[in-house]
Amino acid sequence: MLEIDESLQQTEPDSREGSESKPFLLRRPTHRDLPVLVSLATTPVLAKNLCSNWLPTSPASAKAWYEQSIEASNPSDFPFIITDMSGKMVGAICLMLESRAREVEVSVMIKQDHWHHGYATRAIQAVADFAFSNPTMNRPTLDALVARCRVSCGASRRVVEKCGFQYSGTGMAHSQHYNGMIPIDRYSLDRGVWKAIRSWSGMGQSDFWPHPPARTPRNFDLRGAA
């Protein structure tokens, strides 16, 4: 039976009230990032809560993952590296096209020594804008962004709730860490809710992406404000 680590509910990223929010950058991965991404995927305190198996877990699988996610002409996954303003990696986030073409799943991992600085929350907000605004992602119109959280990880649920996601049900997901199924809560951010949040905050779609390109450039960087 899978253990439930209650301490994770107080030590996950963004779980503390009044945490210091820091500026960040999002960029597409390069070959140099692969060893760190493998490390992220195999760090137990991070991997045990991962509900979507989107990161490479070995050097052998990293090359194939890179070719499929970065070099493919029509990828199904859109991973980004999260860095601080000096360029140091603090985590990674990914958008994954669902089987239903009008939904995209988001998943984020933050290095443990960079927890409590708002990186997870702000990165999700940035890629939500990217997913809803980018015509390459929309095919041509994205209806919803979805997220899955392990039921024992309250902090992950708080992160997606702060981003406007609403609870939409429970289920099971395969865990690479446990090589088995784990119970999860499912959340959804509908396009209408995203538009309302943007309107309430005084930000329009053009504030994030003035002129969307025909396809996502491989060297594309996103800047996140604190």
List keywords for this structure.
single chain; 226 residues; 8-stranded mixed sheet; globular; disordered N terminus; disordered C terminus
How would you characterize this protein structure?
By secondary structure, this protein is α+β, with helices and mostly antiparallel strands. It contains 9 helices and 8 strands. It has helices at residues 8-11, 34-42, 44-47, 59-71, 119-133, 135-138, 154-162, 191-200, 205-208; strands at residues 24-27, 77-83, 89-97, 103-110, 144-150, 166-175, 180-190, 221-224. It has an 8-stranded mixed sheet with strand order 6-7-5-4-3-2-1-8, sandwiched between helices. The radius of gyration is 16 Å and the shape is globular. The model is unreliable at 1-19 and 204-226 (pLDDT under 50).
- Terminal CA distance: 41 Å
Q: What is the spatial order of strands in the main beta sheet?
A: 6-7-5-4-3-2-1-8
List unreliable stretches of 5+ residues.
1-19, 204-226
Q: Helical proportion?
A: 25-40%
Class of secondary structure makeup: alpha+beta
Radius of gyration: 16 Å
**Overall residue-averaged pLDDT value:** 77
Q: Which oligomeric state applies?
A: single chain
SSE ordering: HEHHHEEEHHEHEEHHE
Number of strands: 8
Largest sheet, strands/sense/barrel: 8 strands, mixed
**Beta fraction:** 25-35%
Shape field: globular
User: Tally the helices: what do you get?
Assistant: 9
Give a brief rundown of this model.
This protein has 226 residues and is of the alpha+beta class. Helix content is 32%, strand content 27%. An 8-stranded mixed sheet has the order 6-7-5-4-3-2-1-8, sandwiched between helices.
